[in-house]
């Protein structure tokens, strides 16, 4: 039976001569054209075309129309895999192939930020990704991708597996180009020794010209093939009317080759083919090592997604791809297997290794009703879970997305470095021109090569790498510690903190609030009153509500409203019942003044019952407060609890100030009343902390806290260990130090090398080595951030 071409559907008459691996399976093509197009589709990360296409490609036009226009990505079924939605805004992380420096990132941001419907775009040159938000009513994802494509870059939705393929393809391309440049450099250098050091003293002019032609033959593939990425990047910049790092590089290469070619053809003057080959080789070597270093820096977040298994086993024994799981699906997880999706345990008791999320190595006990997260590992028991979220909405996907956004959010120092680098390129070109004009009058034979040295030696690659390389390494290392950055300024602000403001319940304390005792003030059964209290508290997500969760709520309580930070109000038997703080629940608070009970239940303002709650202090709270006090940072408890418990916690921990019994508005007002020189770090977990978390200079939300608190914070502590905040501060201080070192080195190198090059003291090959070494030093210094944050 004749097999049909997987790409176009035509009969295959060539046997299995033309094959492409698609979806981990070998597919047969009918001709080299279909094979080449299919291979390009796979290499570009567009394999989803084959998954969702409705017909095979037209033989008259091998590249499908939907791929040419990227319209495939506008399909709702396709977007489910990588697009997240919030408030009628779509968000996507794109992988962009072809970014070589910060100028590329700036160019993409500049061109797309003005496009209609694009709300926000941030590009990270280190991990070669872009975070894009757009209004689907005004523009389409295909239009955004087309705009990036027109700039000369390849963009596709980020997928960890495809990213691995792209990285290996880039590595292979660099190695090929490096190999050509390296072999040619060795050959041309040997010829250069013969030409310039007169090894053969009796060499006649004909033989000298012959060696020049041989050098030309070796140098030409280097210029046309190995150096091609530099020309492509330079052309992108020129076409967009801006200047990137590769503009002076390309000018230097083309000028040097053209001048040497002219000297060879005319048989007079000097040739520097060895400089062309060596310059290209060292520059490619530097870029390749930067690629490897970037890979190391961003691998942590990208590898998180790889922890999700490929396949999931349903309760009925059937298997399906884990990414296809939908809310409501029931999955069985055996001991040692990774959890394939976020869900809730419906059967089984086990321990779960959550270290990949929280950085804490001790497994957590989990049983029926507890939540489990994709990528975590089931240690010992058989589990059945009900899936609660799609893969793209899972906690692990959200972590990767927020890490990418944090890396793309540039602090002021990074933006300043980018601006300096762009203006510096203009300065380089002007100084090079002036250098050439001056030396043309003084030493015409050396003018061109002195100008070339200026162009090469002062390329500001290291300056543009100084900040993003450090920030990317720091963000990745914090992710391993269980600290998730949501906003890029966090690392910049954390070392400046001189005031710690922290919530009590669920933050300094464990949040495992227990009902210790109660007191009844009317003649009614305690069980009935507890059930009313439980019914009211069931409408709150505050940790206090958990203390009443074991009591069956009264089903007749209705019309419950939650006054955040104060309490709850509802109707029962045509009367208004309240539970909460005494000044909220009681019309007469005199009774509460002689009681240590924190929570009061009232009917029509009259005291019905009061409850005393206990909440143990976290072990890590002691270390956190002690460390901040040793650094002369003032500490304050800011809590809505009006009882004496806040004062007790403050005394236990040695906290300087206590501000208790305040509403969410009151918390924000307290923050706004701080002295102008105070830089406050706010730590909280509840809904009532959201306003002050959003308003603080810097804020941290507990991972187990409310969603609105986490959405308002600058950082999220994925576990419950407050000492991780100390690790984050140590890391931030180290980041600041390393960024300063990087900038000092990059600027210092250029300040020193520029006058030396202008004066003619720097040969082209020395300039090449110095420029490459400068970039590598910056990257190597940044990689130190992947080590212990307390190391110097």
From TrEMBL:
GO BP, sorted A to Z: copper ion homeostasis
PROSITE patterns to which the protein is assigned, alphabetical: ATPASE_E1_E2 (PS00154), HMA_1 (PS01047), HMA_2 (PS50846)
Coiled coil regions in record: none
Keywords tagged on the record: ATP-binding, Cell membrane, Ion transport, Magnesium, Membrane, Metal-binding, Nucleotide-binding, Phosphoprotein, Translocase, Transmembrane, Transmembrane helix, Transport
Listed GO MF terms: ATP binding; ATP hydrolysis activity; copper ion binding; P-type divalent copper transporter activity
InterPro entries: ATPase-cat-bd (IPR021993), ATPase_P-typ_cyto_dom_N (IPR023299), ATPase_P-typ_P_site (IPR018303), ATPase_P-typ_TM_dom_sf (IPR023298), ATPase_P-typ_transduc_dom_A_sf (IPR008250), ATPase_P-type_domA (IPR059000), HAD-like_sf (IPR036412), HAD_sf (IPR023214)
EC code: 7.2.2.9
Membrane topology designation: Multi-pass membrane protein
Annotated catalysed reactions: Cu(2+)(in) + ATP + H2O = Cu(2+)(out) + ADP + phosphate + H(+)
Listed Pfam families: ATPase-cat_bd, E1-E2_ATPase, HMA, Hydrolase
Transmembrane segments: 174-198, 210-231, 243-265, 271-289, 420-441, 447-471, 743-762
Listed GO CC annotations: plasma membrane
Cellular location(s): Cell membrane
HMA domain ranges (all copies): 90-156
Family to which this protein belongs: Belongs to the cation transport ATPase (P-type) (TC 3.A.3) family. Type IB subfamily.
UniProt protein name: P-type Cu(2+) transporter
